[in-house]
Amino acid sequence: MKIIALYSMKGGVGKTASAVNISYLAARDGRRSLLVDLDPQGSSSFYFRVRPGGGHGTKTLLKGGKKISKNIRETDFENLDILPADISYRNLDLILDGTEKREKVLQKNLSAFKKEYDYIFLDCPPNITLVSENIFHASDIILVPFIPTTLSWLTYDKLLAFFREIEMKRRKLFPFFSMVERRKKLHREMIEILPAEKKRFLKSMIPYSSDVERMGLERAPLPATHPASPATRAFEHLWREVKEID
Amino acid sequence: MNKMNTNGPRILLFKKEHDKNMAERVAPESYTVKWFQTESSKLMFWDTFDGLVKKAGFSLYSNNRIFTLRPRQGEEGEWVVSLRGEPGRPLKATDFPEGSFRKKLAAIISVRAVMPSPEILRESSAFSILNTDGKTIARALWMVIYPDGRKNPRTAMVLQPLRGYAGELQKYANRLPRAEAHATVEEMLKSLLPATEAVYHSRPRLSFDVNAGMAPALRHILETQFHVMLQNEQGVLEDWDTEFLHDYRVAGRRMRSALSLIKPILHPGIKQELVLALKKLGRYTGPVRDLDVYLLARRDFEKMLPGEFAGRGFDLFFRRLALDRKKRFRELKAFMTSQEYARVKETWRDGLKSWQKHLINNPALEEMAAALLKKHFRKLIKAGGKLSRSSADERFHDLRIEAKKLRYLLEFFSSLYREDIIRDAIRRLKMFQDNLGAFNDYSVQIDMLEKFLGTAEKKKDQEQVKTLSALIAVCHREKEKLKKEYAGLYKAFADEKNQLLYHQLFGGNL
Ligand SMILES: Nc1ncnc2c1ncn2[C@@H]1O[C@H](COP(=O)(O)OP(=O)(O)OP(=O)(O)O)[C@@H](O)[C@H]1O
Ligand SMILES: [Mg+2]
Q1: Is the pLDDT of residue B9 over 60?
Q2: Is A177 exposed, middle or buried (0-12, 13-18, 19+ CB in 10 A)?
Q3: pTM higher than 0.90 for the full model?
Q4: Which end of chain A offers a freer environment for a tag, N or C, measured as fewer CB atoms within 10 Å?
Q5: Phi and psi (nearest 5°) for B18?
Q6: Atom nearest to A20 CA in ligand 1
Q7: How far is the CA of B505 from the centre of ligand 2 (A)?
Q8: A157 and chain B: CB distance < 8 Å anywhere?
Q9: How far is it, in rounded angstroms, from Cα B505 to Cα A233?
Q10: Exposure on the CB side of residue B392, measured as CA atoms within 13 A
Q11: Closest approach of A60 to chain B, Cα-based (Å)
Q12: Cα(B91)–Cα(B189) distance, rounded to whole angstroms?
């Protein structure tokens, strides 16, 4: 089992869009996949038409095993399950704070699903907290959507600094360009400079596409509804690249 | 209410016929139902005459030429094989291609044959149930089942909740009309098949015109059993299954018993002719049946023998039996396709047709039946009381025959008495008979084994000698065990309650 996080300190960069689409693509490949919606906003749950948990499961993720299992739901797509967001995740940091080995709770609890799934995808909320630290520990691969702007560069550097600080392996981090608009000069320049500066950039780029925007209306993964869209191809490319990482 | 207590599929067979729209009508408001394609398939279930597959907790069915063997719900495993050629006839394990399916089936039915049920036609349409959010909460099947040609369709539904949605689906299930729940689709389909007993009875219940006397009653008994014989004829000839021959023979024995026990009714001349015809038949059927009993008991013997004897010699012995059976069966088949056999049947047909001509007597039915039953019960009690552990084997054999006579009489005339009482009388007798029957089986086997042993000794086949001697010893041991048990069983049979029962039934002093 591999745990893949979609993470960024910045909001609105395409974490959820990527998590929904590549978890769907993994499942379409026949791999048993679980998408964990860690964002209390519940966007990825929304895309799969699954209602977020009502908050009774305050400690779902902390209790692990059976408690998590009870909340898992089957999506409409074969091989793909989802652990819906829980409103209570808002307090997750506070609760985690009081536990032992507090930065490794998520890792421990997800390991219970080693046999059940080939992949677990984590759709993460945008910030750096104790929850994020848990995510970093639990994940084998951390995918970071990166809008090609200078601001993104700055935030990414902050992330690298934080990794150094907590002595986390930076090798887990894989940034990729997201919401790319070729007609913007800045985007073109950034795409040229950045990969040379930071060698770990993936080759795949997700273009800015109105098809992705419309996912919110259609409430389904893009490849399922728009198999021929250029954005679909980009996500497929991304997934092919990610599954080759070892 | 249809309760949903697990996350497994719910299989519901509706009490009444419904149309497909029902699936949508019952959905809570703002839920939707999405239909997919419809498929139709034809299914047949297979089992031996006496339901060995079912008894072993399995189910065997075919869909076109694909055969599936599956254990009861909740158990692991499934064996699938495809068969070339038409599967519309009885099949033995050896008719299937070699492999794990065949091995598994052979372990269940050994040398017996499975026969097909009537064909069940099934049309299934897949659909999904979506909740208010347009989220699929269950995948489902709508089924229209024709268990019996195009008549009397039944409707059923299979509901499989998606993980995490069993609770929501319950809301839908609660609104469905009355239905029976089944553990598996196969089991549900099987429950729709007509009961096999309705088609074939080895012991049909007879009804008589009480005022017409014993002569027409005897004719009715003979005619019915003759019909049972003929019903089994093809099965015997094709060697579909050993049970055909068994039932065929038993019917013949009942006919002989009826003729000799219920007298004087017929002229001795015709009676003699009819009995001789059956005897001739018995000369061919008997040896095959004896070998069948042996071959069927192979596993029991294997269990009873200490390991060192159940080796090559044992194997060889059974192979020889199988060869012998083949030969004897060929003889039987030759006979049954001969003019001679045609004449046996002709004798019987003519005899029954010209019945009236041969009558010499027609006593009152009820009186005579009661007198016969009383007489044979008394005889059995008396003879049985004289036996003990040390009595000679022959005495036990004689008693077995006496018991059988009473049993046949009880069965022939059962419709004249109250059903529950007669059933009780038969049950009590059967317990007693089982001991005597088993005793006889061992004796027959010992005789046969000794014959084989003689040959093996002459041939100086040490391994065979070893196995056969061990088998003979086992039979003797089992026989002695049965003798020991006899006294207790006799006491139970001859006790006051049973005497009273016969008194009640057949009147008079016992
Ligand atoms: N490639 C794209 N092209 C066009 N619009 C996109 C693309 N990717 C995402 N969007 C849109 O941008 C918005 C933010 O995207 P998304 O929710 O995937 O980002 P996020 O990083 O998960 O945000 P948050 O931090 O709020 O969770 C959404 O409205 C989404 O439809
Ligand atoms: Mg998001």
Answers
A1: yes
A2: buried
A3: no
A4: C
A5: -130, 160
A6: 18
A7: 87
A8: no
A9: 89
A10: 3
A11: 15
A12: 21
**Is there a contact between B135 and A74 if contact means CB atoms under 8 Å apart?**
no
- Whole-angstrom distance, CA of residue B279 vs CA of residue B330: 19
| Chain A: residue whose CA lies nearest to B135 | A49
Q: What is the complex's ipTM, to 2 decimals? A: 0.86
Q: Smallest Cβ distance to A72: which of B133, B136, B163?
A: B163
**Ramachandran class of B99: left when φ > 0, alpha when ψ lies in -120 to 50, beta otherwise:** left
CB contact set of B38 (below 8 Å; sequence gap of 6+): B123, B124, B125, B126
Beta bridge pairs of residue B178: none
Give B133 Cα–ligand 2 centroid separation in angstroms.
20
Q: In chain A, how many H helices and how many E strands?
A: 12, 8
Give dist(CA B206, CA B412) in Å, integer: 7
- Which residues from chain B sit within 8 angstroms of residue A73, using beta carbons? 162-165
Comparing alpha-carbon positions, the chain B residue that sits nearest to A70 is B164
Give tens-digit pLDDT for A87-124: 666 666 666 666 777 788 888 888 888 899 999 999 99
Tally Cβ neighbours within 10 Å of residue B394. 9
Residue A135's Cβ-count burial label (10 Å; 0-12, 13-18, 19+) is buried
Partners of A113 on chain B (C-beta within 8 Å) are none
Nearest Cα neighbor of B132 from B28, B4, B22 is B28
Asked if A74 and B164 come within 8 Å (Cβ–Cβ), the reply is: yes
Chain B interface disruption, residue of A34, A56, A74, A225, most B CBs within 10 A: A74
Q: Is the pLDDT of residue B346 over 60?
A: yes
Instruction: Determine if the peptide bond prior to B264 is cis (ω within 30°).
Output: yes
Q: Which residues share a beta bridge with B334? A: none
Handedness of CA B352, B355, B358, B361 (dihedral sign): positive
Q: Is the CB of A12 under 6 A from ligand 1?
A: yes
- Whether residues A81 and B136 touch (CB distance < 8 A) is answered with no
Question: Which of the residues A73, A78, A79, A82 would you substitute to probe the B interface, choosing the one with the greatest number of B C-beta atoms within 10 Å?
Answer: A73
Cβ burial of B98 (10 Å; 0-12, 13-18, 19+) is exposed
Contact B164 A219 (CB under 8 A): no
Residue A65 CB neighbours (<10 A)? 12
Is the pLDDT score of B149 beyond 70?
no
Q: Which residues of chain B approach chain A closer than 8 Å at the C-beta?
A: 133-136, 162-165
User: Alpha-carbon distance A229 to A218, whole Å?
Assistant: 14
User: What's the one-letter identity of residue A182?
Assistant: R
* Pair A134, A18: CB distance under 8 Å: no
Asked whether residue A185 carries a pLDDT value surpassing 50, the answer given is yes
Q: Return mean pLDDT, chain A.
A: 89
Q: Chain B within 8 Å of A218 (Cβ-Cβ)?
A: no
Give me chain B's average pLDDT, please.
89
Q: Can you spell out the DSSP letters for B155-210?
A: EEEEEEEPTT-HHHHHHHHTTSPPEEEESSHHHHHHHTSPPGGGT--SSPPP---G
Of A204-208, B255-259, B326-330, B393-397, the least confident: B393-397
Residues paired with residue B140 on neighbouring β-strands, in sequence order: B127, B159
R_g of chain A computed on alpha carbons: 17
CA distance linking residue B507 with residue B504, whole number of Å: 6
Tell me what the mean pLDDT of segment A173-188 comes to.
Answer: 95
Helix ranges, chain A (H): 15-28, 43-47, 60-63, 65-71, 92-97, 105-110, 130-138, 150-165, 185-197, 210-218, 222-225, 230-244
Distance A69 CA to ligand 1 centre (A): 28
